[in-house]
Amino acid sequence: MGSLGWRLFTAGMLAGVAWLLRGFSLEGFAPALLGSIIVSLTSWVASWTIGPQGRIELLRSGRRRH
Question: What per-residue confidence (pLDDT) applies to 6?
């Protein structure tokens, strides 16, 4: 499934959450698609921060002091 397919799947899942939860609503497909993009970006940033070992990785730059 390509990137668009995952966005459509996530938008459908957000619509399902809106159907299940009282007080959470989506007013059409466009807000669901925007929400899916936000979820995807948040997931991407979290994956980039955590790294492949499953731990938070710190990036250090600059010169080492002896």
Answer: 78
Q: Which range marks the domain in which residue 28 is found?
A: 23-49
User: Can you say whether the dihedral through the CA atoms of 32, 33, 34, 39 is positive or negative?
Assistant: positive
* pLDDT digits 0-9 by tens, 40-51: 888 888 877 776
Answer yes or no: is 44 within a domain: yes
Structure confidence at residue 65 as a pLDDT band (50, 70, 90): low
Domain count, the chain: 1
The pLDDT mean for the chain works out to 79
Integer angstrom CA distances of residue 56 from 43, 50, 64? 14, 4, 22
Longest Cα–Cα distance of the chain, Å, equals: 60
